[in-house]
Amino acid sequence: MRALVTGIAGFAGSHLAAYLLRHTACEVHGIVHRHDWRILDLREQLTLWRGDLRNPLWVSEVIQKVQPDYLLHLAAWSDVGGSWEQPWTTFELNVQTQLSLLEAVRKQTPTCRVLAVGSNEIYGKIQAEDLPIDEETPLRPHNPYGVSKAAQDLMAQQYFLSYGLDVIRVRAFNQFGPGQSDDFSASAFARQIAEIEAGQRPPLVRVGNLSAQRDFTDVRDMVRAYWLATQQGQAGEAYNVGSGQPRSIQSILDFLLAASDRPIAVETDPGRLRPSDVPVSYCDARHFRAVSGWQPEISFETSLTDVLNDWRQRVRRV
Fold first, then answer.
1. Are residues 118 and 256 in the same domain?
2. Cα(125)–Cα(133) distance, rounded to whole angstroms?
3. Residue 203 belongs to what domain range?
4. Beta strands 204-207 and 175-176: pairing type?
5. One digit per residue, pLDDT tens: the chain, 318 residues?
6. Same domain, 220 and 261
7. For the chain, what is the domain count?
8. Threshold 0.70, pTM exceeds
9. Backbone phi, psi, residue 169, to 5°
């Protein structure tokens, strides 16, 4: 069996590649656009294809050559805050790339099972009565990233309804863990603390909105859910995946500060505040758990410790 992972050198993609190599008998192929530092230790076990998913001719050629049994589409613009500054790039990288892939699968490998990875950001402006968020919650995206992911979700559903493609949609809530970029809160705090410990910056952590509450899941638990979705999910269905427990950004910062032996001050950075933010968001994942039996296995505290230690190692390598 062949599994093709887009964005295999990205944060979630690299963890998924490691999971597939360790726990399945799949021949693992991956699409890489630029950097591949996250998968350097896996490269000899992978077949990599380097190119631009926005190029439909190249995508069609890769799909024809690989003939995947599973296509796990993780490649995406993932910086929610950055999408306000680059809305068109966000839309292009998320919507156009998925369209290229679905068209190629439709024409070249119509029996391939496709996993379209979405985001909780498609739900957008959550009201108190919406909580916890299930798959029937209305889509009200309120940032450019959320709009692009909603378009991806609807497109995946359309290809199932129109062409009968074997497409499954996963709506992943916030994921974090080692290897994540510092565009995200836990990793941003951890990097600053690691650099403070290494004497590379003053003892001050700059933060955005600390009161927001989100549903955090370790990326290693999340990629296990992705694979379970390809094995147990029903074509055409959408599944929320998350812990079901809201945690404040403040609680992340508090834990990471306590894990350091340095006295560190905190300062709000207006540049880290978004034009629009949801106070509380967490999911109802019963639909997915009913079909897969999935449960998070890695504790919130273990994940944060791993994030901080990962940044300590990265800072020392610089």
1. no
2. 11
3. 185-214+245-281+298-317
4. unpaired
5. 999 999 999 999 999 999 999 999 999 999 998 888 999 999 999 999 999 999 999 999 999 999 999 999 999 998 898 999 999 999 999 999 999 999 999 999 999 999 999 999 999 999 999 999 999 999 999 999 999 999 999 999 999 999 999 999 999 999 999 999 999 999 999 999 999 999 999 999 999 999 999 999 999 999 999 999 999 999 999 999 999 999 999 999 999 999 999 999 999 988 887 776 789 999 999 999 999 999 999 999 999 999 999 999 999 987
6. no
7. 2
8. yes
9. -110, 130
